[in-house]
Amino acid sequence: MMDERFARGNSLLHKRDPKVKVIVATAFITVVAISNSFVVVTMALILAFVLMFLSRLEARQVMKRLLAANSFTLFLWLTLPLTYGGAEFLKFGPFTLSIEGIRLAGLITLKTNCIVLSLIALLGTSRIASLGHALEGLHFPKSLCFLLLFSYRYIFVIYQEYQKLNRAAALRCFTPATNIHTYRTYGYLFGMTLVRSWNRATRVHHAMLLRGFDGRLIPLEQQTVARTDIFFLVVALTITATIASIPFL
User: Fold this and answer.
1) Which residues are bridge partners to 119 per DSSP?
2) pTM for the whole thing?
């Protein structure tokens, strides 16, 4: 399973209740996503860096996530200034860079980094199981929370089944190539992965029923919202609302 390395720590954000962090993350990301103001997004990015500082996460691991996210924004920088249209900023040969395209690429880049940093700082500092139970505590649909928790738990089991089949094919001297035999083998491989996953799910369901499962997942740790969590929620939502109101001031 995932090591959830960001969830291990003793910082201010690690100690906060997951329900509070889900509320703050939702409000903050919504403001960033719908804003078209560079000032708002820049202020939000500064706040995201403050959250990263409070979370005391390993900078190297955070930078890896940012590099992965910015690999997509790099494609936007290569295409939007040339294809978006609008006022001309620079022309070289048959290519014309537009001011609007550059502005949009820059805005998307700032938003992307802001959202990734805030998600890591707020939600990455909690375990997936805790977030699933937090969503249930916030009265999200129980089926959705149940699906999230079980998908997280058993997607790794499915991957292990796939690895077993892949090793079995390699031991039988299977070498991938561009031919019908390879396509047929991979078809069998994925098909058997689904069959084994179905069988494993049936066994797990029977085991849970034998242990009195009634459709509810009871968390091992009962977390309660403390006064410090309420204080953090009020301060975070106030700052978020202030940043969102900047264009109207």
Assistant:
1) none
2) 0.80
